[in-house]
Design brief:
By secondary structure, the protein is an alpha/beta fold. Helices cover about 35% and strands about 15% of the residues. Helix 8 packs across helix 10 and helix 9 packs across helix 10.
Length: about 350
């Protein structure tokens, strides 16, 4: 079954067959519009894949959408979260309160949620300002980009590892660790139905945000992790994909290959851009010169901050491949191409 992306106002809960349902849950003020929350049937009550943004309108949509499908949020057996972002994990705590069910996520994202729980708001502001300065943002840009963080998701009751089966009686729902978008992102393979819940890892039209935070870290390489995760999903074959945004689509392997090609082309363009410049560039300068879905000056400040994170991830992959280098002992950090 394939559905095209429509505005949230045109979305409806759907019975997808085989004991699987989808409920569109709005993301207030976000151009993505909505998260597709899935419910999978079990004798002990449905298990949700993601839960949606923590907002009263989102809660009404989730609980009302389940009711329209003949399901009761109070009967939910558990919520398995594909990753910790607020449009996926935000309502998990409220579902747990209403049902007594469990929350599960990958152990790497669970560790981040614990860290966020312990992190004071003032520390977050200091961290963000220093990160932007080291990336090359000036004082005005730093003030524009900085903003509050969303509420911390609920801590999970259960932590998953790659290959674990989710507690879904009568079905086989296996966690597939697909880091990149977050360190603990998972897809969920419904093995008895040849379906893959892809979260944000593989989407039918857009590509997920892959960024580094802080921007100048050199001990991680999330884009390389993401590309390897695409290959891993591709190895599962032409499964039907049930993503968290946009629409359901067939052949996740083919789409994973397209996304990999997109990033490889982007890496080559970025390396060429640095090679054309006589002086090393900061992360912020690189981000301002890259191609986005609109001109840099037209991007909202928060989107410029995300673009810088994505630029940093691509720079880090080129650095790891030996195509560019960062200048040692320079603040803000700067990168230059290596002659090939």
């Amino acid at each position: 079954m394939k559905t095209r992306r429509r505005p949230y106002t045109e979305q409806r809960p759907q019975d997808l067959g085989g004991g699987v349902w989808s409920v569109p849950v709005p993301i207030p003020g976000n151009p993505l519009g909505y998260t597709l929350v899935y419910a999978v049937e079990s004798p002990q009550g449905p298990v949700l894949v993601d839960a949606g943004w923590n907002h009263p309108d989102a809660w009404d949509a989730l609980s009302g959408g389940l009711a329209a499908l003949g399901l009761d949020v109070s009967a939910v057996h558990g919520v398995v979260v594909t990753h910790f972002h607020p449009d996926h994990a935000g309502l998990a705590g409220q579902v747990r309160e209403a049902s007594g069910g469990w929350i599960a996520m990958h152990e790497d994202d669970a560790a981040l949620v614990r860290l966020m729980t312990e992190y004071a708001a003032g520390e977050h502001d200091t961290f963000q300002a220093d990160m932007l300065r080291r990336a090359g943002a000036d004082a005005v840009e730093t003030r524009q980009v900085m903003g509050g963080r969303p509420p911390t998701p609920a801590l999970p009751d259960r932590e998953l590892r790659d290959g674990d089966l989710v507690d879904l009686p009568g079905r086989r729902l296996r966690a597939v660790h697909t880091p990149g978008h977050t360190p603990g992102h998972i897809c969920l393979h419904l093995e008895d139905a040849d379906r893959l819940f892809t979260g944000d890892h593989v989407l039918p039209d857009i590509t997920p945000h892959i960024g580094i935070y802080p921007y100048d870290r050199d001990d991680v390489d999330p884009l390389s992790d993401f590309l390897a995760s695409l290959d891993r999903v591709g190895d599962l074959g032409p499964l039907d994909a049930l993503p968290a945004h946009e629409w359901i689509f067939p052949d996740v392997a083919a789409r994973a290959s397209q996304i990999r090609h997109h990033h490889e082309e982007k890496l080559e363009r970025l390396r060429a851009l640095l090679a054309q410049r006589p002086q090393p560039l900061t992360i912020w300068e690189v981000a301002a010169m890259m191609t986005w879905n609109r001109p840099w000056d037209d991007l909202a400040p928060v989107l410029r901050g995300m673009a810088a994170g994505e630029a940093a991830a691509h720079l880090r992959t080129l650095e790891a491949r030996g195509r560019i280098r960062r200048l040692p002992g320079v603040d803000p950090v700067r990168f230059q191409a290596i002659d090939s």
